[in-house]
Amino acid sequence: MVEVTFAQLQGWLVAFFWPFVRILAFFGASPLWGHSSVPRQVKIGLALLITVVIAPVLPPMPDIPMLSWASFGVMIEQLLIGIAIGLVMRVTFAAVQAAGEFIGMQMGLAFATFFDASSGTNSAILSRIFYMITLLMFLAMGGHLMVLEALIASFQGLPIGIGRFDPAAFELLVRYGGTIFVSGMSLALPLVGSLLIINLALGILNRSAPQLTVFNIGFPTSLTVGLILLMVLMTDISRFLARLFGNGLAFVHQLIESLAPLPPPT
């Protein structure tokens, strides 16, 4: 008869529970695994599988009873780390969605929206198309594997039970949110600039020839030119996405290093 002591059960729980919490928190916050179409059972099962695989190579766990306030603090610590890493990738994807919003508004497609179950809000059609293209390119470039590698490497830079974080790291994460506007506008600027010139020309035309109705000419013109420019944009979007993913992964490593606790005062 096999007997399991409380000390053995404690050791097993310590070895698997806290890494599982960090990985599951990352899956919940990341744009790929955190999508509403991915069942919860799949997220939990995949997080458990990765935990079992990497558990033998993780640094030693803190000697803390599982049923204690200290253990609860360690769990919150792992949640913060996993969510922070997942938010970096979500911001990276949001930059492309913002570009779709900018372009759609300039093309006159601001009314073309539908309910997005993943975010719980109405999303522009171009924003959704850009998101799906970005997601497919992310998978094609192996970005999901590189993000998982960075997550697993975080257990070395941020071992379980570090006790405290560097507060400057969270400020760095907030500032990274500006990528949504900077990168989004960088992607949308060629189309937005061209369509703005067309709208200005139509405005001048309407003033010089009032019999020409802008609503009859402007919308088909903006939509047609916008679709042509989108086809041109798609020929070079892979280079932009590769640079965007590279910056996002580089920031993940930078964030892990920044979250490391400050050295004790002397």
Overall geometry: elongated
In terms of DSSP E residues, the strand content is under 5%
The largest pleated sheet is described as: 2 strands, antiparallel
Helix fraction, binned, reads over 70%
Task: Give the radius of gyration.
Answer: 24 Å
- How are strands sequenced across the largest beta sheet? 1-2
Structural class: mainly alpha
Mean pLDDT: 81
Topology, number of strands: 2
| Domain unit count | 1
Query: Helices and strands, in N-to-C order?
Result: HHHEEHHHHHH
Count of DSSP-assigned helices:
9
Taking pLDDT < 50 over at least 5 consecutive residues as the criterion, the unreliable ranges are none
In whole angstroms, how far apart are the ends?
Answer: 55 Å
Which oligomeric form is depicted?
single chain
What is the strand and helix layout of this fold?
Elements lengths: L5 H24 L10 H15 L14 H39 L5 E4 L4 E4 H16 L2 H15 L9 H10 L2 H30 L5 H21 L2 H23 L7
Antiparallel strand pairs: 1-2
Helix pairs in contact: 1-2, 1-3, 3-4, 3-7, 3-9, 5-9, 6-9, 7-8
